[in-house]
Specification:
A 14-stranded parallel sheet has the order 1-2-3-4-5-6-7-8-9-10-11-12-13-14, with no helix packed on it. Helices cover 44% and strands 10% of the residues.
Length: 414
């Protein structure tokens, strides 16, 4: 009878080929010396750089198995464990592994209910870990106490550049701690505070900290009840800020006045590249403020403006300015009730605009007539590379027109 030590390597490879990634990563290393030797040359194991285990209830014990493997693994750079019920105990195991692991760059453990205790374990590990760059601990029931320990660690840590903290229970004290960190941290470049349900004061703490921060390039504050009053402070800061390139404010309470403040900042700001204002309450007056700013702004490349009550007049303001603006490359107008009439305006724009490469007009009740207008312009437009017209009312005739147009244009329909 053959033992594992004498089993032909081809047979071992065949066994390994039938294992899922979790078993291969967690259960094969350090079984015996010969298997370690085989794993060291087994292509699938050596090229396993990303392990994604979403919605698999591995629990704390599964996290322990992963952590044991992470201690010695030298290939995995990205670990995704979304919604796996690892709890604080599982976070403890992973944190211990992070103290020794020198390869992992990205750790995503959102929706795992690790709580304050779990984030404290991770924070302590970040004091010594020098390789982790991206940490996603969104939706984990983290409160102000956990945020405080994390902030203390990030004062010391000089490696982490991207932090996702959204959908937790951060209140005044937690927001103040985050703001204090932003004033002195010189490593973080991206901060996501999505759906934190901040009060007015919390938002003000974060925005005021941007006066001194010189490294943050991306800030996500979606679904945080941000109002026009908050934007007054931010707009003032944006006039002088030299680092923020991406601002995400989708699903807040911005209205025309807030848009006016942002527009005034855009007239002088030469850094911001991406502005996401999806699903706010900005009407046609707010659109006009922003459109007028785009006449002089020469840096904004992406504007996401879907699901705002801009009306037909608001669309006309945008179309008019994009006849002369040569900087904007991506325009997202989903869910704006554009219909066929609005599509006609956009088609006319695409005949003369030479900078737009991506246009999103999904969910706009566009019918066959609108599709025909788009098809006609696609025959002559040589700039657009992506056009998203999904979830409209285009039927067989409109589809045929678009298909014929794509025979002479290589634009990608999404």
């Amino acid at each position: 009878m053959r033992t594992f030590d004498t089993l032909p390597v081809e047979f071992v490879y065949r066994i390994l080929d039938h294992l899922n990634d979790f078993t291969l990563f967690c259960s094969m290393q350090n079984v015996c010396h010969r298997l370690n030797q085989i794993l060291n040359v087994y292509h699938r194991y050596q090229t396993l750089t990303t392990l994604s285990l979403n919605n698999i209830p591995i629990g704390p014990q599964g996290a322990r198995r992963l952590a044991n493997a992470l201690r010695t693994n030298t290939t995995l750079t990205k670990l995704i464990l979304r919604d796996n019920r690892i709890k604080s105990e599982g976070a403890h195991h992973i944190a211990n592994a992070l103290r020794m692991n020198t390869t992992l760059v990205t750790l995503d453990i959102q929706y795992n209910d690790i709580g304050d205790r779990g984030v404290m374990y991770l924070a302590d590990a970040l004091r010594v870990n020098k390789t982790l760059i991206v940490l996603n601990i969104s939706a984990n029931g983290i409160k102000d106490q956990g945020v405080e320990r994390l902030v203390d660690a990030l004062v010391i840590n000089k490696t982490l550049t991207t932090l996702h903290l959204g959908t937790n229970y951060i209140r005044d004290e937690g927001a103040e701690n985050i703001a204090a960190l932003l004033r002195i941290n010189t490593t973080l470049t991206s901060l996501d505070l999505y759906n934190s349900e901040f009060r007015y004061e919390c938002v003000t703490y974060i925005f005021d900290a941007l006066r001194l921060n010189t490294t943050l390039t991306t800030l996500t504050m979606s679904m945080n009840q941000i109002s026009d009053q908050n934007i007054v402070h931010l707009a003032e800061i944006l006039r002088n800020n030299t680092t923020l390139t991406t601002l995400n404010f989708h699903s807040n309470y911005l209205k025309d006045q807030g848009a006016e403040h942002l527009a005034n900042a855009l007239r002088v700001n030469s850094i911001l590249v991406v502005l996401d204002l999806y699903s706010n309450q900005i009407g046609q007056s707010g659109v006009k403020y922003l459109a007028d700013a785009l006449r002089v702004n020469t840096t904004l490349a992406t504007l996401k403006f879907g699901n705002n009550p801009i009306g037909p007049q608001g669309l006309e303001y945008l179309v008019d300015v994009l006849r002369i603006n040569t900087t904007l490359t991506t325009l997202d107008l989903r869910e704006n009730g554009i219909r066929d009439h609005g599509t006609e305006l956009l088609a006319e724009l695409l005949r003369v605009n030479t900078s737009l490469t991506t246009l999103v007009i999904s969910e706009n009740k566009i019918g066959d007539q609108g599709a025909k207008q788009l098809a006609n312009v696609l025959r002559v437009n040589t700039t657009l590379t992506e056009l998203n017209i999904s979830w409209n009312r285009i039927e067989r005739q409109g589809i045929r027109c678009l298909s014929d147009a794509l025979c002479v244009n290589t634009v990608v329909l999404l």
